[in-house]
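Let us work through a complete example step by step.
Step 1: write down the sequence.
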Amino acid sequence: MPSMVRFIIAIAVILLPLIGPGVGSALAQKRAVPADGAEIRLSFAPIVRRVGPAVVNIYTKRVVQQRPASPFFDDPFFRRFFGDSSPFGGSRQRMENSLGSGVIVGGDGVVVTNHHVIKGADSITVVLNDRREYDAKVLVTDEQTDIAVLRVAVKGETLPTVNFGDPDSLEVGDLVLAIGNPFGLGQTVSSGIVSGLARTSVGITDFRSFIQTDAAINPGNSGGALVSMDGRLIGINTAIYSRSGGSVGIGFAVPSNMVRTIVRSAISGKPLVRPWLSMRAREVTSDIAAAMGLERPGGVLVESVTHRGPAARAGIRRGDVIVAINERPVDDVQGMRFRLATREIGERVDVSVQRKGKLRRLPFELQAPPEDPPRDLTELRGQHPFSGAHVVNLSPAVAGEIGLDDSAEGVLVVNVARGSWASRIGLRKGDIILTVNGAEMKLVDDVERATGGGANQWRLEIRRGNRTLRVEVG
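Step 2: predict the structure and record it as C-alpha cells.
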C-alpha cells in the first residue's frame, strides 16, 4: 500500500471519533440521495427555448476581383493586342462566402449583427432556426462599434424576438449564455460567467467597454447573443482572444445599451450621431493622483474645455476629475466616451466631478458636434507631394464620424488617387496633415497656399493614428 494512502487512512481513523454522531449525521443529510428528478436537474433549456428562435445564422456573399497573374495584363498596350484572352492571365472574379450570427430584436424583421460579419457583402441571407430564409438589407452599419442593423422582408409574418436587458445590472460571476453559429455547425449554446466588465483596453472598436465572458465563443459566433439568466439580451458577441483561432475562454461582447442606441437610430432613419465631448481629458494615473492629493487613481482629468461647448456650459473646468456619469463610475476616457455614446442627443446626464476635494454633480446636456469649420472637400492638384489627395477640414463633427478625439485639429485625408504623387509618398486615407515646411496646417486653404508656390524640398509632418511621421521629399 502506498505511503500516502496509509497516511490518509491513519488521519481518518484519528479524526472519525472526534467528529461525533451529530456532525456525522449532518454530513450524511447533506450528501443524501436526491428524492426526485427536480432536485438534481439544473437546466438552461427554458432560457434557450425562449431565446433560441430569435438567434439567426447570417450568410454573406461578395464578388472578389482577383488580380491578374502578370502585371503586364494591366498595361493598355497588352490589353489592346490580347484582350481578355491574354497569355499572361486575365483578371478573374470569384465568389467569397462567409458566415456569422445575428439576433432578431424587432418582430417586423430588425436584426442585429456585427459590422465585420456583413462588411463588403453583395448579398446577405438570414436563416432562422426553423430554416426559414430571408434576404436582408443593411439599415445601419457602424464600424466604430462593430455593430450592424439589418432588416428582412417578413411579408406580414411576426418573427420571434429577444428583449434587451440591462448590462449595468451585471456583476462579475453572473451566469450567461452565448448562442450563435460557430464554424457553421448550426445553432450552438455555451454557458459561462461574466469574467469582467467595462473592458476598455481591448482595441477592437473605437467606442469600447466590453463585457468579458468565459462562455465558449468561436469563429461564426460573431453577432450572436450573450444572454442573461432572465432570458434578455445583454450583449452581442464580437471578438475572442486567441492565438489559435479557437476559444480559450476569453470572449468579448458589445453591451446591449450601446446596441439599443444604434437600433433606435436605424429604425428612426436618422443619422447616427455621437454626443460632443467638447473637452480634452486623460486617465488619472497613480502619479497624477499623488500629485493632486487624490486618495486613489481613477476617473479622467480634464485638460482643456472647448469655449461655449456643452462641457463649458455644464460648468466643467480644467483640472476637474470626472469620476462618474449618471452615478456609473468611469475610470478612463474610453469609458467616459462609451457612457455618453449610449445616450441620445438632447438628453441630459449628471456628471460627477472632484474639484478641490469636493464632489460636485453637474448637468451635462448632450449636443451633436458642430461642423465648424465647414469640411470644404477639396482635391489637391499640382506639382507637390499631396497631389491626388482629397482632403477636408477637421471639425468636431468630422472627428466624431471617424472616431477621433473631437478636439483634433489639422487637415484630414479622405481619399488618395491611385498612381498619384500622394500615393507614391505613402499618404493614406485617415492621415492628418500637420505641417508643411514648418508651417502649421489648420485648414485646407493653408495646404493649398503652402503647396501653390512650388518648392525643391518638402518637409512634411503627418499624424497616422498615434504616431507622428516626418517625411522629406526632394
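Step 3: interpret the result. The CA atoms of residues 231 and 384 lie 61 Å apart.
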